[in-house]
Design a protein that fits this description.
The complex is a heterodimer of chains A (about 800) and B (about 375).
Chain A: E1 2-4, H1 5-9, H2 19-29, E2 33-39, E3 43-56, E4 64-69, E5 74-79, E6 89-99, E7 102-103, E8 107-109, E9 112-114, E10 117-118, E11 154-159, H3 173-184, E12 207-209, E13 215-224, H4 233-241, H5 249-261, E14 266-269, E15 276-279, E16 285-288, E17 294-297, E18 303-306, E19 309-313, E20 317-318, E21 331-338, H6 340-350, H7 355-360, H8 368-383, E22 388-389, E23 394-397, E24 405-409, H9 410-417, H10 423-432, E25 436-440, E26 443-447, H11 460-471, H12 492-507, E27 511-512, H13 521-527, H14 553-563, E28 569-582, E29 588-600, H15 605-624, E30 629-631, E31 642-652, E32 655-663, H16 665-671, E33 676-683, H17 684-687, E34 706-715, H18 720-729, E35 735-744, E36 753-762, H19 771-787, E37 791-792
Parallel strand pairs in A: 12-15, 27-28
Antiparallel strand pairs in A: 1-11, 2-11, 3-4, 3-6, 4-5, 6-7, 6-10, 8-9, 13-21, 13-22, 13-23, 14-21, 15-18, 16-17, 18-19, 19-20, 24-26, 25-26, 28-29, 29-33, 30-31, 31-32, 32-33, 34-36, 34-37, 35-36
Helix pairs in contact in A: 2-3, 4-5, 5-8, 9-11, 10-11
Chain B: H1 2-5, H2 9-30, H3 35-52, H4 56-67, H5 72-79, H6 85-124, H7 143-157, E1 161-162, E2 168-169, H8 171-174, E3 200-201, H9 209-216, E4 225-234, E5 246-256, H10 261-276, E6 282-286, E7 292-301, E8 318-327, H11 329-334, E9 343-350, H12 351-359, H13 372-375
Parallel strand pairs in B: 1-4
Antiparallel strand pairs in B: 2-3, 4-5, 5-9, 6-7, 7-8, 8-9
Helix pairs in contact in B: 2-3, 2-4, 3-6, 4-6, 5-6, 7-12
The chains are: A alpha+beta (about 800), B alpha+beta (about 375).
Chain lengths: ~800, ~375
């Protein structure tokens, strides 16, 4: 919103005030100022001149040669305006003067010397009227600088509308002036009004509010004999400077009032209106608004009607047919207050957000309507003294806001602020802002002014804000709390997340990615990935991606697909959320999952699988100090990208925490036939159900151990886990540990078999083992294995 | 010196010490030279031969020829038995002293030789090209993770607990508990992703406030509750270079029996100075957010122009950074914390925006793109 300092100065004295500093304070105490414009600086040496002669230009049909009397001399200029006539008073820019970016110099136009310029309103920056030169309507002595009667010089600042959303009182100059008066510790002048009670004996308007939910108050009056059509120049300048286009006197006045008081108004041509009904309709219909657009009105939209004929959309825009015409001399003036939410929703549905609706959305003060009408009457009568009021002020006050009184004491404010603001200063601030203060020492009882009581100020904490913002946050002492020291409760889970990320990124060279919480339907379709039905978003702007994912893997496979052309080797992972259906209480079963995918064109599929397994095992072991176990599963039945054979569940003790798999070739070929892909998904919440095993230090033997490598020949199908199960069965007190060294397979040399080399380490805590002792143990072990059809190779 | 004598001396040395032995033997039996004279000759001979030595093998041969079983010095020792006890004593000392001297000289010479060998090895070593690149394609963390971790670590040092909330929330948690009533524009359908079961994708991290207050309860006397809760948030809007429907925020709050606006200003200044690694100036302006009262917009002084004014800060010298304020009494009340006894402040920070500032990222779509060409750059 644009604010004119000239306008403000009508309501509070700004003499001797540093305006720039004031605007900075305003930002810190009230609302953010985004820009400051200095107006009128670029107009210099423009004076009143009278056209005393108009001749045709010898070389042009459009141009005229004009003689202008500016008091001290008569100047000859070339002028292109069509509306020049002898006797007209015009703003004339003298040689050496300035009009906007134009410096006035002696120039030759189409062969004739021109020594000055007659100016249009647009050239002076006071409207967008460029149809001809401006005609000065009142008599001023020739040679008078136009700045003496035109308020061209002004400082206009732009307030960020967003910072005013909770301040309905600041949507007009008068409210801003109240803030500025408080900041300057100066008086706010009362508005000059016409007393409407003078007309109380006139007949009322036939007004009926049928909808008393959406309407708070409806005030109106009629006036006749309005002869003036054009607003005074200084009113037009203010409207232009504040971003509105001057139209005609009545329209300009309603806009002027809205900018001054923040109260929207509407003027109907009184010839078109017999009575006023405020209501909604039971059937939708088309309505022509004054911008010439036909709009569909639904049954929730509040309408202003003449009997049953709609004449305006309440709080948003008037109708075309009842709007002010060139020959309008009689007007019905509406000044109303409507429910904020209703206006906002109607404006949204209509896609029509106007200056009026933007204000109503903020919950305006209904007390304002009558004052605004009285102010309108005052301004109109000053401009056009012949105006006649033809009705009494007709007012239907449907809903009132409650009076709000807040009790508090200084101690409360002190606790909130942490500093000492005196009770006197509090009283002074609140009074300046319009609060009625009753005070007993440090105890306060304050009545909130109506313009702040619609939603903004209701509780003690709101009062603290009023006091502190005017006090100035930059005047606060800042200090730490007086708190005791205590250890913070430490989140192991969060640390684990970072550990997992660090390991995968820095040990396994993977890249962390982030993906969306919903399935990307288009990519899934391209890759042939089928997902199970899951809970959906009902109103997404990207409607095709409406299903919340129940697994993170499709998102990651989509990324593999996107990057496959650029990277023959990839390792990506994400810790993200999924929803595994609904819980019993109907809420989403949100899960935090780790998804990891490795893809390679260099490694075989088997190598990729085991590279992934190593990473998974390593990270679980390092954060839980427990080796995970792996088992068969049939997840492929649920997700078609899972490999039916090479997939395995991951267990942490008794808890299943996830699975890993090779990518099903059907999907793989849709990504890249040559790309070998394996992936794993681990449920972090399930993983965190198991605490990390306590690390136990084991004494090391002082005696040398004996290491024996055994190559064991067995059927190809036997899993390592089966072999180790057999070994574990053999009771052998000196076997310290054993581990896999190598697996050798060769269809020619060992058909149907494989040779598994295991390294056994024997050691005693008490003594050096004798060779024959070790020999006995090995033989005993081999005997056990032989029973299971496993022999020494 | 050693090098000059070269390889050829090996043979001659051996010959000469054998010759010496024969000579001394003859002298002894002829009763010509005295014991002392013999020892002097042996000594002289030893040093001559030692100086010619060029390898460990040669040195060993010398050792054998002087100190071995039949070595020159050993022979002298054997000869002592032929002397009278008195002569034996003085001669014995002399022989032993020579023996020790030779032993020591050999040890010393061994060391010299070893050093020489190392020098040789080093001189002949292959010259490695240390400019050959070795690094594998290193892994990366997501830029959000990097920035989030940095901030979490700073807050941890100030005693903040780090909490984590759900991404899918009830309307109650997302709106009701943070004082956003039914008709508030923030609840309009078009901004929020609603799910079939009436839940929603959380629109701000504040959705976790109530859960956290209830989890920890009213703070103990003098020990404020200090919590930081980062999280992923969602807005139902179309995506472009500066709009994302999925983004990260980070929120913090501190509740206690004496938490004031003054404390808020202090903590913000200290924490933001850490985050931005400079002495940040902060400024508070009134700002409206339903869950705080008073609410503030916090600006920091512009680092680009040092507050003089530049295009980045729109010539104001200040950058709007984060919303904050004193927690609204209604919010405390709903969190089970008595607003008449306790006060608190809360602040929110756009993590995604912060990461964009830190890395000068112009297009917000990078974060959820999965585009490794972009993401692989975030090596720290």
């Amino acid at each position: 919103m644009l604010i004119s300092m000239n306008w403000i100065s009508e309501f509070t004295d700004l003499d001797g005030v540093d305006i720039k500093e004031l605007i900075n304070r305003f930002t810190l105490s009230t609302a953010e100022v985004e820009d400051i414009y200095e107006m009128g600086n670029n107009i210099k040496d423009v004076v009143v001149g009278r056209i005393i002669e108009v001749n045709d230009h010898p070389n042009s049909h459009k141009l005229h040669l004009v003689k202008v009397d500016i008091g001290s001399e008569v100047v000859e200029v070339v002028c292109g305006a069509p509306n020049v006539y002898v006797g007209a008073l015009v703003p004339f820019a003298k040689l050496g003067g300035r009009v906007g970016d134009l410096e006035i110099k002696e120039v030759s136009i189409a062969g004739v010397v021109s020594r000055g310029m007659c100016c249009s309103e647009k050239e002076l920056g006071i409207s967008d009227d460029h149809s001809g030169i401006m005609i000065i309507e009142e008599n001023y002595p020739l040679g008078t600088d136009i700045k003496e009667f035109m308020q061209l010089e002004d400082i206009v600042f732009e307030v960020d509308n967003k910072s005013l959303t909770n301040r309905p009182d600041l949507w007009g100059h008068y409210g801003i002036a109240r803030e500025i008066a408080a900041l300057n510790k100066r008086q706010l002048k009362p508005l000059e009004l016409v007393d409407s009670s003078l007309y109380k004996d006139l007949a009322p308007i036939d007004l009926r509010v049928d909808d008393n939910q959406k309407t708070y108050r409806f005030s109106c009056i009629t006036m006749d004999n309005i002869r003036k059509k054009k607003s005074p120049i200084n009113m037009r300048i203010r409207l232009t400077y504040c971003g509105m286009r001057p139209i005609n006197l009545l329209a300009d006045l309603t806009n002027y009032l809205m900018l001054e008081m923040g109260q929207p108004m509407h003027a109907y041509d009184n010839r078109k209106v017999k009575d006023i009904r405020v209501k909604t309709f039971s059937e939708p219909f088309e309505f022509l608004t004054l911008d010439g657009v036909s709009r569909k009105i639904d049954t929730n939209t509040l309408m202003i009607c003449d009997s049953n004929e709609p004449i305006g959309i309440a709080g948003i825009m008037g109708g075309e047919l009842s709007s002010i015409a060139d020959d309008t001399t009689s007007v019905l003036l509406e000044c109303a207050n409507f429910d904020a939410t209703s206006i906002r929703k109607s404006a949204t549905r209509l896609g029509l957000r106007t200056d009026a609706s933007a204000r109503y959305e903020k919950t305006l003060d209904p007390e304002m309507t009558v004052t605004a009408i009285e102010r309108f009457m005052k301004l109109l009568k000053d401009i056009d003294p012949g105006v006649k009021v033809t009705s009494c002020l007709t007012d239907s006050y449907v809903k009132r806001f409650k009076d709000i009184v807040v009790d508090f004491d200084k101690a409360y404010v002190d606790k909130y602020t942490g500093i000492d603001i005196s009770s006197d200063m509090m009283e002074e601030t609140l009074t300046a802002l319009g609060f009625k203060v009753e005070r007993n020492g440090d105890a306060f009882s304050v009545r909130v002014p109506s313009w702040r009581a619609t939603k903004d100020v209701t509780i003690k904490a709101d009062i603290v804000e009023e006091i502190t913002r005017i006090y100035g946050y930059d005047n606060f002492d800042a200090y730490s709390t007086k708190s005791l020291l205590s250890p913070i409760r430490h989140s192991v889970e969060r640390d684990n997340e970072y550990k997992i990320k660090t390991m995968l990124s820095y040990k396994y060279d993977m890249n962390e990615v982030h993906s969306y919480i919903w399935y990307e339907t288009k990519i899934n379709k391209e890759l042939g990935i089928k997902t199970e039905p899951n809970i959906r978003i009902i109103n997404s702007v990207t409607a095709e991606n409406d299903t919340i994912r129940s697994t993170i893997i499709p998102s990651l496979l989509g990324f593999v697909y996107k990057n496959a052309d650029n990277y023959p080797e990839m390792g990506i992972y994400e810790i993200g959320r999924v929803v595994a259906g609904l819980k019993e209480d109907g809420l989403c079963n949100e899960r935090k999952r780790l998804g990891v995918v490795i893809a390679s064109k260099m490694l075989s599929e088997k190598e990729v699988f085991f590279k992934l397994k190593e990473a998974i095992e390593y990270l679980i072991l390092s954060i839980k100090n427990i080796a995970p176990a792996f088992s068969e599963n049939n997840i492929y039945k649920k997700y078609n990208y899972v490999h039916p054979v090479n997939s395995s569940s991951i267990h942490l003790k008794a808890q299943e925490i996830g699975y890993m798999s090779v990518l099903n070739p059907i999907i793989r070929d849709n990504i890249d036939k040559k790309l070998n892909v394996a992936f794993a998904e681990i449920d972090i919440y399930d993983m965190e159900k198991t605490d990390a095993a306590v690390l136990e230090y084991k004494e090391v033997s002082k005696y040398p151990g004996v290491t024996v490598d055994l190559s064991l020949l067995m059927d190809k199908e036997i899993r390592y886990e089966t072999l180790s199960g057999y070994i574990d069965l053999y009771p052998c007190r000196y076997l310290d540990k054993y581990y896999l060294v190598d697996i050798f397979e060769d269809e020619k040399l060992l058909p149907g078999k494989k040779s598994v080399t295991v390294r056994f380490e024997f050691v005693s805590m008490e003594r050096t083992l004798e060779g024959h002792e070790v020999q006995n143990m090995v033989e005993g072990l081999l005997a056990v294995l032989k029973n299971k059809n496993i022999e020494l190779r | 010196m050693i090098k000059d004598k070269g390889l050829k001396l090996g043979g001659t040395t051996m010959l000469s010490s054998l010759r010496m032995k024969a000579f001394l033997l003859k002298q002894y039996f002829l009763g010509g030279l005295s014991m002392t004279e013999n020892l002097d000759k042996i000594k002289k001979q030893f040093y001559e031969e030692l100086n010619a030595v060029n390898s460990k093998t040669e040195l060993e041969k010398i050792r054998v020829s002087f100190l071995g079983k039949k070595g020159l010095v050993t022979e002298q020792l054997k000869n002592l038995r032929n002397l009278s006890p008195e002569e034996k004593k003085t001669a014995g000392m002399k022989v032993n002293s020579l023996k020790n001297e030779i032993e020591q000289a050999i040890v010393n010479y061994q060391t010299t030789l070893r050093e020489k060998e190392y020098l040789q090895e080093i001189e002949n070593a292959e010259r490695y090209d240390y400019t050959i690149p070795t690094r594998r394609d290193a892994g990366t963390l997501h830029p959000i993770t990097i920035v989030q971790k940095q901030i979490e670590d700073i807050f941890k040092t100030m005693g903040f607990i780090i909490e984590d909330g759900l991404e899918i929330q009830t309307e109650y948690n997302n709106f009701e508990t943070v004082n956003i009533p039914k008709d508030h524009p923030a609840r309009d359908m078009q901004d929020t992703y609603y799910l079939e079961n009436g839940q929603l994708l959380k629109t701000h991290t504040s959705a976790a406030q109530n859960t956290i207050m209830r989890k920890y309860g009213a703070p103990k006397k003098g020990e404020p509750l200090k919590v930081l809760f980062p999280g992923r948030c969602f807005r139902n809007e179309n995506i472009d270079a500066s709009h994302e429907n999925t983004f990260f925020q980070l929120e913090g709050m501190m509740i206690g029996d004496d938490i004031s606006i003054s404390n808020l200003i202090y903590f913000m200044k200290v924490l933001l100075s850490e985050v931005f690694e400079r002495d940040v100036k902060v400024r508070l302006r009134p700002g409206f957010f339903p869950f705080v009262e008073p609410g503030f917009e916090l600006d920091i002084n512009c680092a680009i122009c040092s507050g003089r004014g530049c295009p980045t800060c729109k010539n104001s010298g200040w950058l709007e950074l984060l919303p904050c304020g004193m927690i609204h009494p209604n919010v405390l009340q709903m969190g089970g914390i008595d607003p008449d006894r306790y006060t608190g402040f809360a602040f929110g920070l756009g993590l995604t925006r912060l990461a964009m500032m830190k890395y000068n990222i112009k297009d917000i779509r990078l974060f959820n793109s999965g585009n490794l060409k972009q993401l692989k750059q975030f090596t720290r």
